[in-house]
């Protein structure tokens, strides 16, 4: 995860971007473009759409940097929220919602394989990404599915329940248990 | 609310599933309830970690140049729009003309107001641009809240009309803002309140002189308003 001083550095960059500083904007791009592109790719399952969304997100960062404040979350969570919103808007517009469910199931299979990998192979993966993936890998498959759907699809709990053909109460309880476990696992690894 | 309900709210926040009403509630509780704040702090690492949930990929190398080409060299609104105009749709051309007209008119009227010793107001003669309006939409795709800010040539004022604005909890108000890129912070245009049907009709004016109008926004703030926007509810440029 980004340490607090990284948050402060990123927050300073955002403030400078708000003042029209292109160099800070480039620095911000260098720091976050991978994260934005990865999240957009994950949601959209399409390289071209992910590139378009990445462009839109950074143009939006340029335009809205003045609206950022710490009360809206860390720079990472603010930028990812912009990315998710843009991606989900595009996802809806191209009607790819149902493809996501299949992708979630595929992703779960990948996570299952990944947990069996040897540590030397793991170092090639992004460090921050790995912490959360390892934590998610320890969730039950149905918990992983519901967390990924909740986080990446923009669906409400009722819509997720419909998608999974489960009662809303079951989905709600599953999300709660999964998030409780993630909290425990992530805190332990930081 | 009990601890379990607090936790549900924080979980929804972490997953990006809050409705605007819940967002307002979260902001309110975060500033007034220690137990809620503690739960929120407990989940902060998870919220941060979830940002890294997608398998990591580097952005394609050509993307940076493309994005930088869309960012204006200078911050001035007219330049910004001119650059977009060159590269894309006819719609931007119209927007650029409107924006440029706005800036010229604002500057002229601000000068007039100052000469008359009055507080500069966002007033101008828009008769030549009768279709001028700014549409504000919720940042969340599933929210129905919308607002329009229109120029009233007869009354020479900006009028706000909004729909589907949920009632806020006690201690919270909707606040209108103009984003002027030449200023460090957005300029407040005051507090507005929805009626029981979620509709708002109001005349708005900025608290200070505005020379460039880039966007309007309505945020959720503490009662009576704040000096900076915190939770943007609708926005449009």
Could you characterize what this model shows?
The complex is a heterodimer of chains A (190) and B (237). Chain A has 190 residues and is mainly alpha-helical. Helices cover 79% and strands 0% of the residues of chain A. In chain A, α8 packs across α10. Chain A is globular. The model of chain A is unreliable at 110-125 (pLDDT under 50). Chain B is of the alpha+beta class. Helices cover 37% and strands 22% of the residues of chain B. In chain B, α2 (20-32) crosses α3 (34-50). Residues 74-131 of chain B have low confidence and may be disordered. Classes of the chains: A mainly alpha (190), B alpha+beta (237). At the A-B interface, α2, α3, α4, α7 and α8 of A face α1, α3, α4 and β8 of B.
H/E element string of chain A?
HHHHHHHHHH
What ranges of chain A have pLDDT less than 50 throughout 5 or more consecutive residues? 110-125
Beta-strand percent range of chain B: 15-25%
pLDDT averaged over residues of chain A:
79
Quote the beta fraction of chain A: under 5%
Radius of gyration of chain B: 21 Å
Compute the separation of the termini of chain B in Å: 38 Å
Strand order of the largest sheet of chain B: 5-4-7-8-1-2-3-6
Oligomer: heterodimer
**Which ranges of chain B are low-confidence, i.e. pLDDT below 50, for 5 or more consecutive residues?**
74-131
Q: Which structural class do the helices and strands of chain A define?
A: mainly alpha
Rg of chain A, rounded, reads 17 Å
Give the biggest sheet of chain B: 8 strands, antiparallel
Helical fraction of chain A: over 70%
Shape of chain B: globular
Taking the alpha carbons of the first and last residues of chain A, their distance comes to 8 Å
Counted beta strands of chain A:
0
Mean pLDDT of chain B: 71
Largest sheet of chain A: none
């Amino acid at each position: 995860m980004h340490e607090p001083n990284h948050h402060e550095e990123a927050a300073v960059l955002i403030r400078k971007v708000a003042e029209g500083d292109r160099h800070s904007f480039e620095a911000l791009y260098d720091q976050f473009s991978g994260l934005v592109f990865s999240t957009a790719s994950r949601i959209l399952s399409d390289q071209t759409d992910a590139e378009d969304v990445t462009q839109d997100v950074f143009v939006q960062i340029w335009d809205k940097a003045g609206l950022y404040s710490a009360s809206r979350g860390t720079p990472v969570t603010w930028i990812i929220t912009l990315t998710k919103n843009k991606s989900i808007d595009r996802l809806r517009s191209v009607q790819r919602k149902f493809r996501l469910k299949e992708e979630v199931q595929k992703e779960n299979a990948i996570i299952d394989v990944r947990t069996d990998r040897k540590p030397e192979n793991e170092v090639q993966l992004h460090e921050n990404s790995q912490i959360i993936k390892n934590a998610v890998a320890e969730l039950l498959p149905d918990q992983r599915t519901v967390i990924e759907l909740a986080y990446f699809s923009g669906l409400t709990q009722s819509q997720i329940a419909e998608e999974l053909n489960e009662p809303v109460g079951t989905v709600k309880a599953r999300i709660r248990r999964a998030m409780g476990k993630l909290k425990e696992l992530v805190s332990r690894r930081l | 609310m009990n601890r379990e309900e607090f936790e549900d709210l924080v979980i929804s926040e972490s997953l990006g599933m809050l409705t605007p009403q819940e967002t307002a509630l979260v902001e309110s509780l975060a500033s007034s309830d220690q137990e809620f704040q503690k739960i929120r702090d407990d989940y902060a690492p998870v919220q941060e970690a979830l940002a890294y949930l997608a398998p990591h990929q580097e952005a394609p190398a050509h993307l940076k140049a493309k994005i930088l080409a869309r960012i204006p060299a200078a911050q001035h609104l007219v330049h910004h729009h001119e650059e977009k105009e060159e590269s894309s749709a006819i719609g931007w051309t119209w927007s650029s003309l409107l924006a440029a007209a706005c800036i010229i008119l604002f500057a002229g009227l601000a000068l007039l107001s100052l000469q008359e010793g009055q507080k500069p107001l966002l007033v101008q003669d828009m008769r030549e641009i009768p279709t001028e309006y700014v549409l504000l939409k919720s940042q969340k795709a599933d929210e129905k809240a919308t607002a329009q800010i229109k120029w009233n040539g007869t009354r020479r004022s900006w009028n706000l009309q909004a729909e589907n604005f949920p009632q806020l909890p006690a201690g919270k108000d909707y606040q209108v803002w103009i984003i002027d890129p030449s200023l460090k912070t957005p300029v407040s245009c005051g507090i507005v309140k929805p009626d029981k049907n979620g509709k708002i009709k109001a005349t708005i004016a900025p608290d200070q002189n505005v020379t460039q109008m880039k966007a309007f926004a309505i945020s959720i703030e503490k009662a009576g308003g704040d000096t900076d926007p915190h939770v943007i509810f609708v926005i449009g440029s």
